[in-house]
Specification:
Enoyl-CoA_hydra/iso; lyase; 2-enoyl-CoA Hydratase, Chain A, domain 1; single chain; alpha/beta; six-stranded mixed sheet; 2 domains; four-stranded mixed sheet; 49% helix; 262 residues; 11 helices; Lyase 2-enoyl-coa Hydratase, Chain  A, domain 2
């Protein structure tokens, strides 16, 4: 099974990439499986937060280079396959960003090329001290142009360009300093910490989380005045929701709110 799925009572769906023999590469089949699973989770009210983890020594090594090499044998030298693969990968990355539920990456081992893109596309990311990150396409004559989209939206321009131009591997600490991941956690504590953070987020109103996540990614692409106009409107609509009324009343009355997720 390429993707292991487990959901707990807190509403946390844990998805584990499980193709360690191929270093959890984003093959066509893996992308298909991820997309289908993410789509199902989006409409499942029992899922409140998603954790994306992996088995084996690699979180995700990017695209399957053997699959890419095989496609070169086609009459078009692989053009149709490459076009389909890049489009499919972009769809999955955008599905994570546009997903109504928060998505958290739990990274052990290496995350390279499209695997690094996968980490950057998640809303939060926690990593063990042995985790390593790189966009190493330049080593094989292939600039990591699509990973660059997610990378440049997470780290500074200079840091992103250094990774892209050199292909050098970053340590977990360096990745944290650059803003690619949130925190480095001791290996033996990583899963417990990630799941604790997921449970904390899952305890909030799912309506509020979905509203805020969508607004966050929308406003950051806008000019300042447009961003304030947009988020002001979002705040007004949010204030009129049942959970906002309940949350404010609970705060004033010094009690725990009871969310209806609406």
């Amino acid at each position: 099974m390429l993707l292991l799925s487990e959901q707990n009572d807190n509403g946390v769906l844990r998805l584990t990439l499980n193709d360690s023999s191929r270093r959890n590469a984003l093959s066509e089949q893996m992308l298909d499986t991820l997309q289908t699973t993410l789509e199902a989770a989006a409409s499942n009210p029992e899922v409140r937060v998603i954790v994306l983890a992996a088995t084996g020594p690699a979180f995700c090594a990017g695209h399957d280079l053997k699959e890419i090499t095989q496609a070169r044998q086609h009459d078009d030298a692989g053009r149709a396959f490459f076009t389909r693969l890049m489009g499919h990968c972009a769809t999955v990355m955008q599905a994570i960003v546009n997903h109504p539920k928060p998505v958290i990456a739990e990274v052990t081992g290496i995350a390279t090329a499209a695997g690094c893109q996968l980490v950057a596309s998640c809303d939060l990311a926690y990593a063990g001290p042995e985790a390593r990150f790189a966009t190493p396409g330049v080593h094989i004559g292939l600039f990591c142009s699509t990973p660059m989209v997610a990378m440049s939206r997470n780290v500074s321009n200079k840091a992103a360009m250094e990774m892209l131009l050199t292909g050098d591997m970053l340590s977990a600490e360096e990745a944290m300093q650059h803003g690619l991941i949130n925190r480095v956690i001791a290996a033996e504590e990583l899963t417990a910490y990630t799941m604790e953070m997921a449970a904390k987020i899952a305890s909030k109103s799912s309506m509020t989380l979905a509203t805020g996540k969508k607004a966050f990614y929308a406003q950051r692409e806008m000019p300042l005045a447009e961003a304030y106009a947009y988020t002001s409107e979002i705040m007004v609509e949010n204030m009129l929701k049942q959970d906002a009324k309940e949350g404010i009343n609970a705060f004033v009355e010094k009690r725990t709110p009871h969310w209806q997720d609406q």
